[in-house]
Amino acid sequence: MKEFDFIRHYLQSRELTDANIILGIGDDAAILRPQSGFDWHISTDMMVSGRHFFPDVAPQDLAHKLLAVNLSDMAAMGATPKYALLSAALPDLNNDWLEAFCSAFFAMADNFGVSLIGGDTTQGAGVFNLTIMGQTPTGKGLKRNAAQMGDDIWVSGILGLAAAALASRLQGFRLPENCFAICEEKLLRPMPRVALGQDLLDLAHAAQDISDGLWQDLEHITTASGVGATIFADDLPMLDDLNRHPENLQWALTGGDDYELIFTASADKAKHIQNLSQKHHLPMTRIGKITQGQGVRVLNQHQQEIHFKQKGFNHFEKA
Amino acid sequence: MKEFDFIRHYLQSRELTDANIILGIGDDAAILRPQSGFDWHISTDMMVSGRHFFPDVAPQDLAHKLLAVNLSDMAAMGATPKYALLSAALPDLNNDWLEAFCSAFFAMADNFGVSLIGGDTTQGAGVFNLTIMGQTPTGKGLKRNAAQMGDDIWVSGILGLAAAALASRLQGFRLPENCFAICEEKLLRPMPRVALGQDLLDLAHAAQDISDGLWQDLEHITTASGVGATIFADDLPMLDDLNRHPENLQWALTGGDDYELIFTASADKAKHIQNLSQKHHLPMTRIGKITQGQGVRVLNQHQQEIHFKQKGFNHFEKA
Questions:
Q1: Which one of A44, A141, A224 has the shortest CB-CB distance to B87?
Q2: What is the CATH T-level fold of the domain B3-137, as seen in this structure?
Q3: Which residues from chain A sit within 8 angstroms of residue B43, using beta carbons?
Q4: What is the DSSP letter of B224?
Q5: ipTM of the complex
Q6: What is the mean pLDDT of residues A203-224?
Q7: Is-contact B40 A23, C-beta < 8 A?
């Protein structure tokens, strides 16, 4: 199959229903006509075979995760996702693989209201890049630099599951039977917290998603906001069944790939935030406080500081 | 150097002066506030080591070309380039290499008024993806589907130079002394025709840039517009000094990597278009006509059809 046939067959055949899209895939560029009253949020993420996913990953899982990690950036801004551009360097054009990849990609895109408006395909060793755009009402986006002294620190979901699944795959130990599927799903098919992010627009001060590990990601908030933070390890939402594993706390604090939201809010918003738990069927957990100073301190049950060699994932250090 | 230090050092230190940028690099997403009265154009291109550039390419040349091929898409729409997001999968973080890459990247970006507002860095075998955004006044963009019966077909610049340089590198023959530098520069540092594209907004009907070969790229226009086209091979702008080489016509018609503009315009615009040649110090050549029917016919001096095995570059066929 030729490159242009591929584009036509899988991509151009889809109808674009979004009124802001003047021109979709198939020209030198897509054309968008902005609506007044909205800010646009734009972000890009690259995924590399053997680095971000196993070379034998199921195409459905890859498509899901590629969109999920980008949608998660929109969630962190409280933005409504709208448009995506997909670049792919593929070893070859295998029809079955592409069919499976595209079906999953568009199912997920439809699910989140995202239109694919551009892209590029070329030959290469399995590298995917997605650029995503979303909207908030003007001036409403959730930034990292808005944490305020005394804010509560909240996190959505359960932490450390993807890291547990990854550690299990790489180190070969067995996860407890009842955890295995949950952890695997979190690693392969994380659900970006898009609807939660939108609900936080009027509740949270600073927010971001956890991709490289809670500790490291929270430090982005404290650095950008010029504040410090204290986290209480005992309050972190972890899976009870994993607690027997000595590395569980480390997975939760530094493992990454969680794609949950970490955010700060003033204490008087606590009730509202707790109520979101029911609405989104998602644990909402207060795990610490924004403080004076700088950096993130993690305290154990005896109020002693916990230290780890690494606070999160660094793409250029050997694992 | 760690990933975040790299981002901070090379990218975040630059000041953003564009009033539409509410938030640049360093959060989960950049935030843009659209101006009324403008459409936004957005496009993305991926470049893979060993495929789009030689693995030992100079970092300055790579940075230039990465921006150039994307700027060329904006030129093809007649859009004013504004913002870019850069993803890079690099084997390692080598300071000298990065310094050279970033200096060249930002010099070129400044030159074209482009602000870098986002990106992603990861480890990988040399893959670069750029997403670019630009503006035109509302409804003004140049599309491929607007060619009209009887239009003249025009092309900017000289064709086939990059293909000649590539053929020389891959097949080892010597280019004439006086052509070598011109062809090499076209291959390594093509100049996107951004200012020309903007001037064509009120003159041209359909337009696109030549990246995969004139013949193949013109077929995108004829297909999208539901018309045919006839090209006169004798009228193609080629370098006289290359005419001795038997493949020169093939380079010009199918070689690609030209990053010139091909566009159609009604015959009464000919004088205006010829005048652009002086303004932009760039040959502007009428090479054919939009006709009834479909597809692109190329005629030689005896009015006979010319055929080549391949009309342009296909990323998934063996060279």
A1: A44
A2: 60s Ribosomal Protein L30; Chain: A; (3.30.1330)
A3: 28-30, 85, 118
A4: H
A5: 0.90
A6: 96
A7: no
